[in-house]
Amino acid sequence: MTNADTLGALLLENERTRPTKPAIREKDLGIWRTYSWAEYTQNVRDFAMGLAKRGFGAGDKLCVAGNNRPRLYWAEMAAVSLGGTAVPVYQDAIATELQFVLNNAEVKVIVAEDQEQVDKMLSLRDGLVGLELLVYDDDRGMSELEDDPGVMSFEALQAEGVEYGRQNPSAFSDAVAAVKAADIAFMVYTSGTTGNPKGVMLSHANMVETARTFLANEEVRESDDLFSYLPLAWVGEAMYSTTVSLMSGCSCNCPESPEAFRRDGRELGATGFVAAPRSLEMVLSEIQVKANDSSGLKRWVFNTFRDVAVEIENRKAEGQSVSLGMKLKRAIGEILVYGPVRDQYAFRRARWVYVGGAPLGPDTFRFFRAMGINLKQVYGSTEVSGLVTLQSDELASPDHVGKPCEGINVKIAENGEVLIKSAGVFQGYYKNEEASREAITEDGWFRTGDAGILESTGELTIIDRAKDVGKLVDGSPFAPQFVENKLKFSPYISEAVSFGHEKPYVCAMIAIDMNTVGNWAEKLGLAYTNYMDLTHKQEVRDLIGEEIKRINPSLPEVSRIKRFLLLAKDLDADDAEVTRTRKLRRGFIAEKYAPVIDAFYNGGTEVELATEVTFEDGRKSMLDTRLTILEAA
After folding, report:
1. What's residue 1's pLDDT?
2. Same fold, 7-218+232-251 and 277-348+350-465
């Protein structure tokens, strides 16, 4: 394994040792375009020299905004190769959300993917104090900006870089050599579940050493194809699609759009990727709906062999033997069900698939394992460079997140909080010394904020966010995430928020899955106009009621849902109800939906609710609705 200790040094080593090996691909206009490590490096070099000509250097910040595209990765690498810092942001963030991050980070250059992203940035430009240059990738719709001195195309900046590099032939390699392992490579902003996001400063050493740890625990081959579809602003993209790819020499592959996950992933046949729980939940919902809508025979075949596979997985987890008859059924199911499912949903060649970023429901986890997909859990956070524990192929389980990787120390504080020490622990929050001090104990342990248990076998079990774990009035423990993940196993439920802390019983707000429930309604000939209208249909209320009736027996008796309601809109990051990574902002939700919570526990059957909704362009409006509270059977 390489001894290079900065990202730029890793890049130059790849150019030298594997110049013709595929480094990155992108699907554009229906065609896959492949770039070798030599081409990757040259693109980074030209862009970096263009930045240098414009005065960008050590300590400066460059923001990338857009979907996963090679040029955005190259822009990040150009910045860090010059001693600067890459600041990725969520492509679906609204303008006002971005303004805080861009000003807090003191961004000097923004590289935006397309007209949508450029328009957002231009709407903020007057309020961005440090911004000097806006660069765009896709030139469609940009003709009106040709005379704007503060805006230019990616190609134009690279052209300047080519000329600058010709005049200063050693400038790029000299800049890379001057970068220190302790310099900040990435500034990744937290989800902001309790307030404004914080800029997590991750050094080259944080990234490189954590990638080295990952590669010591998972087989990643030079010939591997990683699927890069998660938001660039997620620490996992910086770690796995950038740093792990640089260190191992494998290629990362960008779909045409995040929505093309299934189509492009099936074409590519990725050998490994890190998935978000929401992605897997959506795939599962689609599979379940297709099975339910199929002919009686096909539905019987799917359900029969699915149950066999799940039973085998459960037996393995409990250390029980699997009979010859079940093995034979498993072999038949491989032909009829499991193989076709893996092929249709981009898992055909996948040797490993990690799920991370948020908890995945145990039923969902077992389903994918049963389909023959080597799904495993990875646990980490932005502040520890995205890695603490990994599961092995043999011990993958929904009940824990695996053992801490070698060199990563984990302990449980007296209050049950998980504490971490590793080479990946961040350098602090940017311009927030108070929060930085609060995040680290006096003896140097990072406070994760997660409540967990370190089992005698060495596996770490995460219960919930420490601040979210509570008790019912009678003292019974209440972990809201556990209840919510059970609910989200239903293909008809998109999101769920459960309540019960210091209450006599558990209640839940349900956001339906618009596509699944909408298709269900259309098959019944049930007319509706929009999301709100659909949730007001008695047939839909009965549907969700039946789902809760089915799910309740799988919950501990004290955690079973007694009352519920259907929200008139899905929970939305634009409305600050969830983060961009789909984590619930519980404090904000409790305040916003206080009338609902009161009605749950005072015996009310209806509640008038006025909620503010935010449109994609930042405009706001009020949504007035009357919600019906239902009793769970």
Report:
1. 62
2. yes
**pLDDT number for residue 195:** 65
Backbone angles phi, psi at 331, to 5 degrees: -65, -40
pLDDT at 309: 93
Please state, in angstroms and rounded to a whole number, the distance separating the CA atoms of residues 198 and 101: 8
Neighbours of 524 (CB within 10 A): 12
pLDDT of residue 618: 65
Domain-wise residue ranges, the chain:
7-218+232-251, 277-348+350-465, 470-631
CATH ID of 470-631, from 2.40.30.110, 3.40.50.2000, 3.30.300.30, 3.90.700.10:
3.30.300.30
Residue 319: what pLDDT?
80
96 CB contacts (<8 Å, ≥6 apart)?
Answer: 618
What amino acid occupies position 541? R
Give bridge partners of residue 452 from the DSSP assignment. 462
**Residues 309-313: contacts with CB under 8 Å, at least 24 apart:** 309/333, 309/337, 309/338, 309/370, 309/371, 309/372, 310/366, 310/367, 310/370, 312/370, 313/366, 313/369, 313/370
What class does CATH assign to 277-348+350-465? alpha beta
Q: How far apart, in whole angstroms, are the C-alpha atoms of residue 596 and residue 258?
A: 34
Which residue bears the tokens 């040259």? 42
**Residue 4: helix, strand or coil by DSSP?**
coil
CA dihedral 463, 469, 472, 474 (to 10 degrees): 70
Q: Residues in the chain with pLDDT < 70?
A: 1, 192-195, 615-618
- In the chain, the amino acid numbered 123 is S
Give me the CATH code for the 7-218+232-251 domain, please: 3.40.50.12780
In the chain the first and final C-alpha atoms are separated, in Å, by: 58
Q: Quick check: helix, strand or coil at residue 508?
A: strand
Which pLDDT does position 506 carry in this prediction? 95
Question: What is the signed CA dihedral for 62, 244, 197, 463, rounded to 10 degrees?
Answer: 180
